[in-house]
Amino acid sequence: MGGNRELAERFIASLEARDWDAWAGLLHPAVVYEIPQSRERIRGRDRYLRFNQEYPGDWHLRPKVTIADERHGVVWFEWLLDGRTDDAMAFFEFADGLITQVTDFWPEPYEPPPGREHLVERWLPSPRSGSRRSHRVGFADGSGARCP
Amino acid sequence: MGGNRELAERFIASLEARDWDAWAGLLHPAVVYEIPQSRERIRGRDRYLRFNQEYPGDWHLRPKVTIADERHGVVWFEWLLDGRTDDAMAFFEFADGLITQVTDFWPEPYEPPPGREHLVERWLPSPRSGSRRSHRVGFADGSGARCP
What is d(CA A142, CA B141) in angstroms, rounded to the nearest whole number? Predict the structure, then answer.
């Protein structure tokens, strides 16, 4: 379990360092990567490596919370790109000391619905927050630019 | 740690059951609940209880992955409301056998940016997926109805 926690920590650290050999060494050759929000799946270490190597922009990742057990793990991390920052999370499955599945989520800011102001306080937006990784913004119908 | 994992499991199960006494019994009286996407914070068990009791709609929660250690935990769960379903996740902090902090995330579907089709396969949208809890949709400028 300590080993799996370390796998999750090294996953983020080696991505941040662009240490591709170290990063790929954490992954099972048949690893599956999924992004449920866009219904995308990448099969295999080689393609997943290429996906990250080709990922545009000077992005940075900073882990906030890492949790792991003998089978599953998660890193809740902060991403930074083009002067913006926000939270994201990567879930992992482990087997035999390698990562066999990665599933990540990229939540978007939104305005709360009315009706709960009597219970809630709000904090001010960070000058660095408020938008998804720029290359992830954009919808097929062109509406993306208006979405938070 | 087993205790904290059980706290996280019971958090979701008692919410799903609307067993408010059981649910509130898991929480520290000074628990803090945060929704980073909407920059909302609720302080204290009483207000957080009321927030959930007042939450509109016949919502349901189904846990998918639960992970916990001596300090932190997470439940990645599926929510269902009005014939729709999607993923969300709640992170926890624990102290003395109680939940002291809850932070949850409600990721939205989005279309992938172009340029990675050579690496990626996509799966079909579920007939039940594709929209945030209806009462969470809507932005201050009225654009919400167009956002995924």
Answer: 17
pLDDT per residue over A56-83, tens digit each?
A: 999 999 999 999 999 999 999 999 999 9
Q: Tell me yes or no: is domain B2-105 CATH 3.10.450.50.
A: yes
| Record: contact B108-A112, CB cut-off 8 A | no
| Total beta-carbon pairs less than 8 A apart between chain A and chain B | 163
Residue B1's pLDDT is what? 53
Pick the residue of A4, A5, A39, A128 with the most B CBs within 10 A to test the interface with B by mutation.
A39
- Facing residue for A146 by CB, picked from B106, B108, B146: B146
The full set of domain ranges for chain A reads 2-105, 112-148
Banded pLDDT at A130 (limits 50, 70, 90)? low
Chain A partners within 8 Å of B121 (Cβ): 40-43
The partner residue sitting opposite A68, judged by closest CB among B56, B67, B147, is B67
